[in-house]
Design goal:
Radius of gyration: 14 Å
Distance between the termini: 17 Å
Number of strands: 7
Order of helices and strands: HEHEEEEHEHEH
Number of helices: 5
Strand content: 15-25%
Shape: globular
Structural class: alpha/beta
Strand order of the largest sheet: 2-1-5-6-7
């Protein structure tokens, strides 16, 4: 993969590369963005792997307790956790072999960015997958 020159390029590269989104902090509460965003992305062709320590099923998918519990290769990790928790999520994403880390709209973390970039992950923060998918029109192949 060629390193993106801008956040917009990273967004487009991520949306056009990954057909599966692992969602850390996915919520079973349908009134929360952490449920709405994965549901929207699933309805637009992406496979969703929810990660939540307390739920059994989210958007019709089996939930895993942690990234380490997922029995397959993790690619894109989408994060719905507060900024101070994102560094630990970034470390777990690197340990799970992820190649992209996306922090949802309103979430920023200098430490998570540093961890992701040092490990060579594509990185986006403070952007919404729904907004970016609508802006770009990209859907999985």
């Amino acid at each position: 993969m060629t390193a993106p020159k801008s956040t917009d390029e990273a967004v487009e590269q991520i949306l056009s590369t990954y057909d599966t989104i692992t969602v850390v902090g996915a919520s079973a509460n349908t009134s929360k963005a952490a449920n709405e965003v994965p549901a929207y992305m699933k309805n637009h062709g992406w496979r969703i792997i929810p990660v939540n320590p307390t739920a059994e099923e989210i958007v019709g998918e089996r939930v895993y307790r942690s990234l380490a519990d997922i029995p397959e290769q993790v690619g894109l990790v989408d994060v719905f956790r507060p900024g101070p928790e994102c560094a630990e999520v970034a470390r777990a994403a690197v340990a799970a072999g992820a190649s992209a880390l996306w922090l949802q709209l309103g979430i920023r973390s200098e430490e998570a960015r540093a961890i992701a970039e040092e490990a060579g992950l594509l990185y986006v923060e403070d952007r919404c997958l729904i907004i970016e998918q609508r802006r770009t029109g990209i859907v999985p192949a």
